[in-house]
Amino acid sequence: MDRSEVKEIAHEAAKEAVRETLEALGIDTQNPAEERADRVFLRGQRVASAKVAMAVRIVFITTACSGLAWVIWEGFRLAVRVKGS
After folding, report:
1. Is-contact 19 29, C-beta < 8 A?
2. Phi, psi (rounded to 5 degrees) for 39
3. Euclidean distance between CA atoms 49 and 43, whole angstroms
4. What pLDDT, on the 0 to 100 scale, is given for residue 38?
5. Cα(61)–Cα(63) distance, rounded to whole angstroms?
6. In this predicted structure, what is the pLDDT of residue 80?
7. Angle made by CA atoms 21, 24, 38, in degrees to the nearest 5
8. Backbone CA torsion sign across 8, 14, 16, 19
9. pLDDT at position 1
10. Global confidence as pTM
11. Distance between CA atoms of 38 and 28, rounded to whole angstroms?
């Protein structure tokens, strides 16, 4: 066997090993365009989920701050009313 034959055998063995590994992980090696589309969709879902989580955090913080401001204002109003009476 010469060097080119060994290289070709190694190349084919590596391709087969990668194919078997990907298939063991559940990745369709026969249709790479579909796999890529699935990954793009999943990335979109992940990004959208992160945006929703951020929006929920902002709403929660805004609500908490508004509630705190209302409590302080009502306390101030009550204190002023008691002193003024």
Report:
1. yes
2. -65, -40
3. 10
4. 93
5. 5
6. 86
7. 95
8. negative
9. 83
10. 0.60
11. 11
Dist. CA 60–CA 67, nearest whole Å: 11
Q: Tens digit of pLDDT per residue, the chain (85 long)?
A: 899 999 999 999 999 999 999 999 999 889 999 999 999 999 999 999 999 999 999 999 999 999 999 999 999 999 888 776 5
Torsion of CA 65, 68, 74, 80, to 10 degrees: -100
CB 14 within 8 Å of CB 20: no
For the residues of 9-37, what is the DSSP string, one character each? HHHHHHHHHHHHHHHHTT--TT-HHHHHH
Q: Contact, 35 vs 25, CB < 8 A?
A: no
Q: Residue 15: which of 4, 1, 36, 29 has the closest Cα?
A: 29
**What is the predicted pLDDT for the residue at 37?**
95
